[in-house]
Amino acid sequence: MSPRTLTNFYTCTIESKQWGCITACFGNNSAHDRKELQKVMDVAQSVTQIRLTTIDSIFPSFCLGKAANIIKDLSHPGHSFLTPLPLGRRYRNLKARTTRVRNSFFPFVVRLLNSPSIK
Predict the structure, then answer these.
(1) Is the pLDDT confidence value at 70 over 70?
(2) Which of 7, 15, 80, 81 is the most exposed place for a label (fewest CB within 10 A)?
(3) Residue 19, exposed/middle/buried by CB under 10 A (0-12, 13-18, 19+)?
């Protein structure tokens, strides 16, 4: 097989696994788990000789995309979590007592949407 074909195969496979890890549980992973996953990505990067984006930079954009779809879909069960406050500039923070809940999807997205860098 040609090197270009192998590179395309590995890139597609790695990105598929990367997105799978993000959707499954990346928000609730510990720092150690994130470092281990990044090590796997670094090895894949050295094998393919292609610069891959870090998982920490992909996760927020992935969440914002999912949130945009939820905001558009009025019938989505999570739509009520992402409704703006009366002035329309910020979203209501969800109260969370544990780190597990605080790092879950909806509280994380609300923090992202309320951050000044997104505006």
Answers:
(1) yes
(2) 80
(3) middle
